[in-house]
Design goal:
- It is built from twelve helices and 19 strands.
- A hairpin with a 3-residue loop joins strand 2 (51-57) and strand 3.
- It has a domain at 41-351: Penicillin V Acylase, Chain A, CATH 3.60.60.
- The chain has helices at 30-37, 148-158, 162-176, 233-237, 240-245, 248-261, 265-272, 360-371, 375-378, 383-395, 400-419, 429-442; strands at residues 46-47, 51-57, 61-70, 76-81, 84-85, 91-93, 98-100, 104-105, 108-113, 121-124, 129-135, 192-199, 202-209, 212-217, 221-224, 303-304, 306-316, 322-325, 337-339.
- 29% of the residues lie in helices and 22% in strands.
- It has a seven-stranded antiparallel β-sheet with strand order 4-9-10-11-12-13-14, with helices on one face. A six-stranded antiparallel β-sheet has the order 15-2-3-17-18-19. A two-stranded parallel sheet has the order 1-16.
- Mean pLDDT is 89; it is low at 1-45.
- The termini are far apart.
Length: 445
């Protein structure tokens, strides 16, 4: 594959955790900072759609993991789409624009924010997995175009290998560009994108700035977050202020460290649940809440984001791929369940941003939001049992339907145990107020 901006055999310069090092600025006053980040021009917790993605390329296959961090009420759901063929001249409506449809699309399993055509992460029947990251660049932001999530889905539907999926994404960038609003609460919030694209044989990091792009082949463990990382391309295009506020360097260093130590799926579960070195529970900063660790918890006054879905894939050469998904927010209090692209599940109606106990995502929010009042006291009520279930499943994974039935029974049991225990809310006052507003908006009882 031709790679603009870096020779195919050139190893990009970076520190041990793959960061492109830049001076750390002194923050402006909060109101100045907030208005520079959010076109609304106020300081009420502007939502940043942050994520963290890792891949490990080994001799026996590839491990992939991602946390999707978005608005706290932005429910995600698992969406199975079958293989399809289309007549010539068919149009496809993506999130904001229409493009020509391909003659044939692969069967895919997607983790989708409810209001977006595209996906935060997903897999196809050919063993390709993709996850994207918001990145902030100095290139102009288009008012409309394909979102990064649209590009994830299109790469999966049209790419039969990781390399081919990269080619699909870069050609779509050239043909249609990227752009359009990407936030639920703040619809004009937009960004450019980076991707990890993997299959059973290897993986690539694909970074973009407008219609420009660069690709790097992965060797060993590789982590990306909400900042450009490939030397030359990052130096030219990175927006240091938004990248700094996203806390991507801290999270990327941490996920890279953990990925290099990981030997299996259980280690990636732990990586996605990590609250930072030496921390068992979230730590909230006034500026950006819990954005400084891979398991993100919302509550910042300037920037705020919440892990709303998590995904781990085990792609095995010569074997069956297994994908592990939460289908729920906050992996630290969620159960990973095995799923297959080839085995669609009926999980009920798609969620919205209003609480609805018919949906798995919102049923779990009753547990999640209760636990976070005082996780030190409440997590021990159910985490040991959750960990035993996951350990048993890793040794002998059940089929998806069985796993989700068991998971729902456990969720009900754990929610009752947690909500019946009186505790003191130990979060900082601004975090408590933030979550009170979010739960009121969604109608969470």
């Amino acid at each position: 594959m031709q790679v603009p901006g870096v020779a195919s055999d050139e190893a990009p310069w970076r520190c041990a955790c793959h960061c492109v090092l830049t001076p750390l600025p002194i923050f402006p006053m909060p109101h100045t900072l907030a208005s520079s980040l959010c076109r609304r021009g106020d300081t009420e917790g502007c939502a940043f759609e942050m994520c963290d993605t890792v891949v490990i390329v080994g001799q026996d296959g590839v491990l992939f993991a991602k946390n999707s961090d978005r608005d706290p009420n932005e429910a995600q759901f698992l969406d199975w789409q079958p293989r399809r063929t289309y007549p010539q001249g068919t149009s496809l409506k993506c999130t904001w624009i229409e493009i020509p449809q391909a003659a044939e699309t692969h069967a895919v399993l997607l983790s989708r924010p409810f209001w977006i055509w595209g996906a935060e992460m997903g897999a196809n029947e050919r063993g390709v997995v993709i996850g994207n990251e918001a990145v902030f660049t100095r290139q102009p932001y288009a008012k409309s175009g394909l979102t990064g999530m649209d590009l994830v889905r299109l790469g999966l539907e049209r790419g039969d290998t990781a390399e081919r999926a990269c080619e699909v994404i870069t050609q779509l960038l050239a043909d249609h560009g990227q752009g359009g609003g990407c936030g639920l609460e703040h619809r004009r919030f937009t960004y450019h994108n980076s991707f990890i694209v993997a299959d059973r044989g290897g993986a690539f990091v694909l970074e973009t700035a407008g219609r420009e792009w660069v690709v790097e082949k992965v060797r060993g463990a590789r982590a990306i977050s909400n900042g450009l990382t490939i030397r030359g391309f990052a130096d030219k295009h990175s927006d240091w202020l938004k990248t700094r506020v996203s806390a991507s360097r801290a999270r990327q260093c941490r996920t890279q460290e953990l990925a290099e130590k990981a030997t299996g799926v259980a280690d990636l579960f732990a990586l996605l649940r990590d609250h930072g070195r030496g921390r068992r529970e979230p730590h909230y900063a006034w500026i950006n809440g819990g954005l400084n660790a891979p398991c993100v918890h919302a509550g910042g006054m300037v920037a705020s984001s919440q892990t709303t879905a998590s995904w781990v894939s085990q792609l095995r050469r010569g074997g069956e791929d297994v994908h592990w998904v939460t289908g729920t927010a906050a992996p630290c209090v969620s159960l990973f369940k095995p799923v297959q692209v080839s085995e669609p599940l009926d999980l009920g109606p798609a969620p919205t941003d209003a609480a609805d106990d018919r949906t798995l995502w919102w049923r779990h929010e009753r547990l999640h939001r209760a636990v976070m009042r005082n996780p030190t006291e409440l997590r021990p009520l159910f985490i040991p049992e959750r960990d035993r279930v996951e350990a048993r499943w890793l040794g002998n994974p059940p089929r998806g339907p069985e796993a989700f039935v068991i998971g729902d029974e456990l969720l009900k049991k754990w929610t009752e145990a947690v909500r019946s225990r009186p505790v003191t809310d130990v979060r900082p006052v601004w975090v408590r107020r933030y979550w009170t507003r979010q739960s009121r908006r969604a109608g969470v009882a």
